[in-house]
Specification:
This protein is of the alpha+beta class. 50% of the residues lie in helices and 16% in strands. Strand 1 and strand 2 form a beta hairpin. The longest helix has 21 residues. It is globular, with a radius of gyration of 12 Å.
């Protein structure tokens, strides 16, 4: 089982080949449990105002590439906010 750093590295290298369960693991670590789960979609809240959610869809066990890129963008924003607070 891959750790978070390995999963994120895989997401950056090849967003088309990320397992849905791995992407959910990353989102749950950074954004908490999904607001909606148990279906093909999972919705995670992000900590900023505006459109504060990441919506993931399971496509035959894989995450959709554009959703992987959305999560990477959200993680970058989260990291930038954490750096500015220091």
């Amino acid at each position: 089982m891959a750790n978070l750093e390995e999963i994120i590295a895989q997401m950056i290298r090849n967003p088309q080949d990320v397992r849905f369960s791995d992407l959910c693991k990353v989102c749950e670590h950074y954004f908490g449990p999904p607001r909606q789960g148990g279906t093909s979609h999972r919705v995670y809240r992000t900590p900023w105002p505006g459109d504060p959610r990441v919506n993931l869809q399971n496509k035959q066990g894989k995450a959709r590439a554009y959703q992987v890129r959305q999560v990477l963008k959200a993680l970058a924003k989260l990291e930038l906010e954490n750096d500015s607070e220091k």
